[in-house]
Amino acid sequence: MDQAVWTEDGTRLWAVREGDGEPVVFCHGGPGLWDMMADVAAALSAAATVCRWDQRGCGRSQRQGPYSVDRTVADLDAVRAQFGWDRVALLGHSWGAQLALRYTLAHPERVSKLVYVSGTGIDDDATWHVDYQRNLRAALDGRLARWESLRTRERTAAEDREYCVLQWSADFADRERALEHAETMADPWFGVNFECNTTLNSEPAPDLRGQCETLQVPTLIVDGTADIRPRWAVDSLERALPVVSRVQLPAGHLPWVEDPAGFHSAVTRFLSRP
């Protein structure tokens, strides 16, 4: 059932919960996108209570700032408190993996386990972003010219959707089904909050290494081996965390889409550990 979560500054967030068992709160990618993990939630709901939510200004939540990482961490805590959970497991994807990590570092006593999916580690983005841009353009292949045309001009709402679908198509290892998968991501379409995206992406990232080295929350890192974001970018996080395991799946940036069985097995096995 959909539920409104009200933050301390009066912003309404969309959330939904399903299933039975220990609580797991999802953190979607972006920033500026919305939750696209209903399939993952359905698969896990037999063993856990899964909560999905749209971040501030995104998707079904109120389109209202201000936007900052600290503000989004506080919003995530409002979601946890709304449902009356003292401790939760977190599953974050992409930017949401970074958000889940930041929340865990800020509130380790409130997190039982962390699932870090397709994140980009704790080194400066400059260490991997050039490789990502090269891989993105290579994966777009015949769609590159159209993507470049849309990227460099003011777009209509319909063109925003086309631009995103083209870019998201690069995130799948199966090139024959890539556009199909990207279209599924855009249905339903809520419109990207580009202001939120730009603001959060431009926020300087703190050095998290020291905090990570003392974090005792069990963490599972899940990668798709064909992710266009170089997977070695996550090595720094894996080295820093003292209680960590890592699973690499034959998939792109959304491993639950291209290897659902492998993803479900890895996540449920980790979450079921005492």
From TrEMBL:
<dbReference type="InterPro" id="IPR050266">
    <property type="entry name" value="AB_hydrolase_sf"/>
</dbReference>
<dbReference type="Pfam" id="PF00561">
    <property type="entry name" value="Abhydrolase_1"/>
</dbReference>
<comment type="similarity">
    <text>Belongs to the peptidase S33 family.</text>
</comment>
<feature type="domain" description="AB hydrolase-1">
    <location>
        <begin position="23"/>
        <end position="149"/>
    </location>
</feature>
<keyword id="KW-0378">Hydrolase</keyword>
<dbReference type="InterPro" id="IPR029058">
    <property type="entry name" value="AB_hydrolase_fold"/>
</dbReference>
<dbReference type="InterPro" id="IPR002410">
    <property type="entry name" value="Peptidase_S33"/>
</dbReference>
<protein>
    <submittedName>
        <fullName>Alpha/beta fold hydrolase</fullName>
    </submittedName>
</protein>
<dbReference type="GO" id="GO:0016787">
    <property type="term" value="F:hydrolase activity"/>
</dbReference>
<dbReference type="InterPro" id="IPR000073">
    <property type="entry name" value="AB_hydrolase_1"/>
</dbReference>
